[in-house]
Write a structure and sequence with these properties.
By secondary structure, this protein is an alpha/beta fold. The protein is 29% helix and 15% strand. The strands form two sheets. The chain has a seven-stranded parallel beta sheet, sandwiched between helices. The longest helix has 19 residues. The protein starts with 29 loop residues before the first strand and ends in a 12-residue tail after the last strand.
């Protein structure tokens, strides 16, 4: 699953990740996760990188999972850089224990993902995918599509998570004249930000699920958000609501969603994140269907990797790497863990203990 190459030239934005060296820190080994090795890697182990790297670079889109076991073996690893946003593919608690810095390019794809959330909401609410499939298949049945199509206006829309992405989703929903905008987050928005979008904080998740016509998940994955929407509480979702998840697949229980969409309890589910990536061919979300034949707006994980976003996170990855190699301070907003403690509250409320 890992591949490594060596060069002494730092890449420009958009180029492939490689192993780098610089004057202040000579002979630095950088391991870049590029592609899945699969059966070929089993037959030819040299395709795989080893665990002696000083720097690990990976992405959320085709992640290399830095598990506790891997980090235990990575005796020389000093920093893990996520080329993008979301470092849950790294065991952050283990990284803290081994004093491995974890950094990501915060903010690099927030606009890209927020736009994809709005796109997916409209795809589901307007029953767009089955309509498009009719045209591709040479059919024309307006009534069949219209019975599952609605306006976003006058709907209650809720976001689970109101951080950089969640708040931008709320901003982009304002022109649609929704009945109400709700948010669920451990941290309340500043009053002026809350007033700007007219959003109301709901403190109880079950209460939020029961009120919303549209639920969008915009929270990081950690211990408290894993399986947050599950078989026990999905029945509390307002009947006929739509769920959108462009955060992390494991926040929502895959089987619970499949059953809820099939029964009509949930009208549809859409997003681009899966609990395992790449998603296996038999993943339950590949065959989502509600009782009238729609209900799915799933894609591969690409909402945050538009060409515009790629340029931003490539430049950000280079910046973090250069800061590390030259001994400069990494910008605080890009730090996830450092010196054995969490440097951010983005991954939940945590005690800052060494």
């Amino acid at each position: 699953m890992l591949s490594r190459a060596s060069t002494r030239i730092l890449p420009r934005a958009g180029t492939a990740a490689r192993a780098f060296s610089s004057t202040p820190k000579n002979d630095i080994k950088v391991l870049a996760v590029l592609y899945k090795g699969g059966q070929a890697a089993k037959e030819e182990p040299r395709l795989l990188g080893d665990c002696d790297a000083d720097v690990l670079i990976t992405t959320p889109f085709h992640p290399g999972y830095a598990t506790r076991e891997i980090l235990q073996k990575a005796k020389n690893l000093k920093i893990a850089i996520t080329a993008g946003v979301g470092s849950d593919h790294i065991d952050l608690n283990a990284a803290n224990e081994h004093k491995v810095i974890v950094a990501e390019v915060s903010g690099s794809n927030v606009v890209s993902v927020a736009e994809h959330v709005i796109l997916t909401i409209l795809e589901l609410v307007r029953n767009f995918v089955p309509a498009h499939e009719q045209i591709v298949n040479g059919n024309w049945n307006v009534a069949h599509i219209a019975r599952g199509a609605f306006d976003l206006e006058n709907k209650v829309v809720a976001t689970i998570g109101a951080g950089r992405i969640g708040y931008r989703v709320l901003e982009r929903l304002v022109p649609f004249d929704c009945k109400e905008l709700l948010y669920f987050d451990y941290a309340p928005l500043p009053r002026e930000a809350e007033a700007k979008v007219g959003a109301r904080k709901v403190d109880d998740l079950d209460d939020l699920l029961s009120q919303a016509d549209v639920i969008t998940v915009n929270a990081p994955l950690h211990e408290k958000t894993r399986n947050l929407i599950n078989k026990d509480n999905i029945g509390k979702v307002k009947k006929g609501a739509w769920i959108i998840n462009t955060a992390r697949g494991a926040i929502v229980n895959a089987d619970a969603v499949k059953e809820a969409v099939a029964s009509g309890q949930v009208s549809g589910y859409g997003g681009d994140v899966w609990n395992v990536q790449p998603a296996p061919k038999d993943h339950p979300w590949r065959t989502l269907q509600n009782p009238i034949g729609g209900g799915s707006a799933m894609t591969p994980h690409y909402s945050g990797t538009t060409l515009d976003a790629q340029a931003r996170y490539a430049a950000g990855t280079r910046e973090i790497l250069e800061q590390y190699l030259t001994g400069k301070a990494i910008r605080p907003e890009n730090l996830i863990v450092k010196d054995g403690v969490y440097a951010t509250r983005a991954y939940g409320q945590r005690e800052q203990t060494a």
